[in-house]
Amino acid sequence: MVELYRRHWDRGSWSDYGVVWDGPFWQVAGWGFAIAILGVALLIGGQWALGWRRRTLAAERASALVDWRTLLALLPITVLIGWVEELVFRGVLVNGLLAILPWGAMALVASLIFAVSHLVWDGQAGVPSYPV
After folding, report:
1. Which residues, 6 or more positions from 14, have their beta carbon under 8 angstroms from its beta carbon?
2. Which of 2, 112, 124, 132 is the least crowded, having the fewest Cβ atoms under 10 Å away?
3. How many angstroms separate the CA atoms of 11 and 100, rounded?
4. Strand, helix or coil at 51?
5. What's CA 71's distance to the chain center, in Å?
6. Quick check: 62 pLDDT over 70?
7. What is the CA radius of gyration of the chain?
8. pTM beyond cutoff 0.90
9. How far apart are CA 104 and CA 68, in angstroms?
10. What is the four-CA torsion angle of 30, 96, 130, 118, rounded to 10 degrees?
11. Is the pLDDT of residue 123 over 80?
């Protein structure tokens, strides 16, 4: 939908939404993936170090059953979901709100819409994280 809007109504370019396919983009994307992998490794390593996570026979059996094809299929899906989410919230929504709101109000409204759209999926489990 973003592409249809961009082509037929807005007549803008991808750079209008913050997407610039140049060297710095790929460098930042690479650093982002590296930091994410390091963060997950530190999180799991910390859990093992604190004794919160233990290897069990059931876990070893389950790890032997991992279907790598499924994992490789999930990787592009997760990247695509994140890409679309960032494009919608940081590109389209921010640009649209900046046209009618000052910068601070835009940041507040965009953040609230982002938070509510994610908390909806959590149901009752997300209630403790609602702002008071």
Report:
1. 6, 20, 21
2. 132
3. 19
4. coil
5. 18
6. no
7. 20
8. no
9. 45
10. -50
11. no
